[in-house]
Amino acid sequence: MFVTSTRAQQERSVRVAVVGTGAIARGAHLPALAALAAEQPIEVVAAVDIDKSAVEAFCGEHGIAHPYTDLQLMLDEQRPDLVTICTPPTLHRDQTLAALRAGAWVWCEKPPCPSLADFDAIEAAEGQGGPYAAIVFQHRFGSGAEHVRKLLAGQDLGRPLVAHCQTTWYRNTAYYAVPWRGRWSTEGGGPAMGHGIHQMDLLLDLLGPWSEVRAMAGRLVHDIETEDVSTALVRFENGALATVVNSVLSPDEVSRIRIDCEQATVELTHLYGHSNADWKITPAPDATAEQAAEWRDFGPDVPSSHLAQLRALVADLRAGHRPRSSGADGRTSLELIAALYKSAFTDTTVRAGTIGPGDPYYTALHGGAPGWAPAAEEVRA
């Protein structure tokens, strides 16, 4: 599949396999791969799905030569360089490990896996110089996020002081009628894990490491195992304080990040992806016109997208460099979510780096908490 570009004919083609042939593969991964193939040698050599008719139809529709229902057989026979994983979260750990052990790099849809223990097992399977496993955190990428990240890193806007991270979406009862939704074992968590993770990851990418979190969670509408809303207060190592809201109860849907710095406020307002026009910078009254103009110059518009992240990932693959959103860089968002749940379910402040082996929240994000964990997994005091 895909005709490779004539540019850099001596450059080796990257062989890609797609695991899972549902909506995210069709709507995001394949279009990104096709667009990148117009720039450099990329070849989708195989697809895998447990549904034989589905994978055969998928391959036939997109010109992919080899359909499989067995992941290991595909890895053994096709030896792909890169595997994109588009399956439910409960499958991510084992599929990622299988690909890494076969020597393939991995690009895995969020949520990365159901627990920190699973994530650490994946990181332990990576090699020096690769293969590496990266998470799909496409909101980090694009010209807007890159510009603001540089401004904050260089303290061009002064110290970051106050932040707000909001993922307020709406999901009705029909959404949760799908059997695997709203369950710890299959979704890994509620809106903090499955919806708000993108905005929280972007906030962390912009502001740097967090140090402590204090949270609440509730089931206010839906009859599910997980929460349907959570709120949190987060302190960052740089001293900034943030509020975080994740909801599936909000008819007026929006995704928003706001960061108030000493010299300017940065705000991003969008829903499922952003471009330069979705960012706003408001200078403090004493900022000069020249400063304001420089801060507001985002350059050519590169929207956040799977393509933007995939382009960077393949460049790292070719160079043998660890990609962004892998290893410790990818773990930080999952650790914050684990800490958010622990704080909410235990009514305590949770500090970064304290959830490890022996902690119930290390192996399951519900931590066995009474009233939150499935009954068979509840831990009684």
TrEMBL record:
<dbReference type="InterPro" id="IPR000683">
    <property type="entry name" value="Gfo/Idh/MocA-like_OxRdtase_N"/>
</dbReference>
<feature type="domain" description="GFO/IDH/MocA-like oxidoreductase">
    <location>
        <begin position="147"/>
        <end position="266"/>
    </location>
</feature>
<dbReference type="InterPro" id="IPR036291">
    <property type="entry name" value="NAD(P)-bd_dom_sf"/>
</dbReference>
<feature type="domain" description="Gfo/Idh/MocA-like oxidoreductase N-terminal">
    <location>
        <begin position="14"/>
        <end position="125"/>
    </location>
</feature>
<protein>
    <submittedName>
        <fullName>Gfo/Idh/MocA family oxidoreductase</fullName>
    </submittedName>
</protein>
<dbReference type="InterPro" id="IPR052515">
    <property type="entry name" value="Gfo/Idh/MocA_Oxidoreductase"/>
</dbReference>
<dbReference type="Pfam" id="PF01408">
    <property type="entry name" value="GFO_IDH_MocA"/>
</dbReference>
<dbReference type="Pfam" id="PF22725">
    <property type="entry name" value="GFO_IDH_MocA_C3"/>
</dbReference>
<dbReference type="InterPro" id="IPR055170">
    <property type="entry name" value="GFO_IDH_MocA-like_dom"/>
</dbReference>
<dbReference type="GO" id="GO:0000166">
    <property type="term" value="F:nucleotide binding"/>
</dbReference>
